[in-house]
Amino acid sequence: xxxxxxxxxxxxxxxxxxxxxxxxxxxxxxxxxxxxxxxxxxxxxxxxxxxxxxxxxxxxxxxxxxxxxxxxxxxxxxxxxxxxxxxxxxxxxxxxxxxxxxxxxxxxxxxxxxxxxxxxxxxxxxxxxxxxxxxxxxxxxxxxxxxxxxxxxxxxxxxxxxxxxxxxxxxxxxxxxxxxxxxxxxxxxxxxxxxxxxxxxxxxxxxxxxxxxxxxxxxxxxxxxxxxxxxxxxxxxxxxxxxxxxxxxxxxxxxxxxxxxxxxxxxxxxxxxxxxxxxxxxxxxxxxxxxxxxxxxxxxxxxxxxxxxxxxxxxxxxxxxxxxxxxxxxxxxxxxxxxxxxxxxxxxxxxxxxxxxxxxxxxxxxxxxxxxxxxxxxxxxxxx
Length: 384
Prior knowledge:
Helix content is 47%, strand content 9%. With 384 residues, it is an alpha+beta fold.
């Protein structure tokens, strides 16, 4: 979809169809416009038969905004949004989060429904301050919400209130001085190399493929389910470009990535051999190694591996470290990288983490080195 932008601040007009801009004057589809209103919220309108009609409307809106008194726009925002209930404001804010993947949107909905709306839903936006936020955190503590849940709920509340603060609803930042919940992930349970060799062969061929992709390339479960032999872009590089979406059961974009984005990860020769062995033994469909066990036309539902994992653990014939989950294969990848001196920035990129802070919190204890070791290394450089 092409758009045409007018002078700064006026907005854009476009046609939501397949025709290029050069054909707009002849195609039957109506023009749409997009602009920011007096409250700085993005607004979209449709129903304009000609380009001139669309431009006239954008000009009308722009002229009205320019003619308003200097403080009128801010006063209008405060009047409109200040009296709005938190639930209504949060839903409007959520509608603007168009970059969220389906799983992230599902998680956001859960936090709003079970934590934010019950405690804050009916509160008017202009009544928020640091005391209200502090009481919300205390309420979660009294309700015995887990630290991870507290942290995630606070992060969402923070994003919503900062959005309101940017609109001018608060004279002071309502988050100023608030101590956020301190979530520090427990150390990941990681199998040793010997344990990994034993565990990877404890199930069927599909289980072995998953174990190798996660432990050798750092793939998430859904990414491993979408493994495609065409994504071997070099002898030692695999391109992770999609995952099986747990909600839709179909292939979709990567977590924290826009549609079409990808990440290239190291492909150890052993993992390349496993991919090619599996493809030769079981065949592929459009390059995909894994398909739905009951319907090859559908993507593989990676949660099917969960039942097999539970059977392997229940049999108690395999040396599995206490507390390990299937995600432990992916933890092994991070451990293998960091204990061999690979920079944590590279590891974070290969694992697809949205923030280096996530990688650091979970795997900091795996990084080799200490202050004393650093001092010795620096001494060597100074003496050279």
